Amino acid sequence: MFQYILFDLDGTLTDPKIGITSSVQYALRALGIEEPSLDKLEPFIGPPLADSFREFYGLDEEQTAAAVEKYRERFNDQGIYENEIYPGIAEMLAALKAGGKTLAIASSKPTPFVERILDYFEIRKYFDYIIGSNMDGTRGRKEEVVEEALRQMLPAGMTSAEKKAEVAMVGDRRFDIEGAKEHGITSVGVSFGYAPEGELEQAGADHIVDTVEALEKLLMRTGD
Q1: What are the catalytic residues?
Q2: Does the pLDDT at position 224 exceed 60?
Q3: What is the pLDDT of residue 109?
Q4: What is the rounded average pLDDT of the residues 52-64?
Q5: Strand (E) positions, the chain?
Q6: Cα–Cα distance between 154 and 203 in angstroms, integer?
Q7: What is the predicted pLDDT for the residue at 158?
Q8: Alpha carbon separation from 131 to 51, 87, 127, 128, 151 (Å, rounded)
Q9: Does residue 88 have a pLDDT over 90?
Q10: Which residues of 76-90 are buried (b: 16+ CB within 10 A; e: fewer)?
Q11: Angle at 180 between CA 195 and CA 72, to 5 degrees
């Protein structure tokens, strides 16, 4: 079934809550905004960072740029390691690679951060392609990340039917589902991430799984 598999990172392979929300809290404080609740900052996990600062706190372009800079100041040294890999993920990735699958990361997080996280958890070896956003903020939308990943990993001349049957995007937020749909590939939502209740269903995910074990079973399935 699926030969080419794209994975989101945050909320899909790892639980980055403490690192991301604490770094957002740090950035907001630098702008004079106090947000004591890390739970309230969970919506920052998934979408492009700059978009979240603008949407959730009404920052203008100059303020957004300053917030992103302060976020990275903390995240680069501390927040990046305030992260946990979900149980069973490394074993699943090993099984997929042993099964001959081609794996890629497709994340809205800047590529250098993605690479450091994969190295930290010792799972970089499983990925044939690592695609993130650019540090200057470009290629930040999930549709753009997925487009670049597909450009690099898929053989030329695949038909639309072949792409739908053989390529899957796995993620925990609607942005992952929308990115998959934009490019005509199968979307797989994981409910153990950070999507609000009903978000994956509303986004129209082709499959939704509740556990890492169920995800592995789906991705290893043969036929149809």
Answers
A1: 8
A2: no
A3: 93
A4: 97
A5: 4-7, 14-15, 84-85, 102-110, 129-133, 167-171, 186-190, 207-209
A6: 25
A7: 95
A8: 19, 23, 10, 10, 11
A9: yes
A10: eeebbebbebbeebb
A11: 60
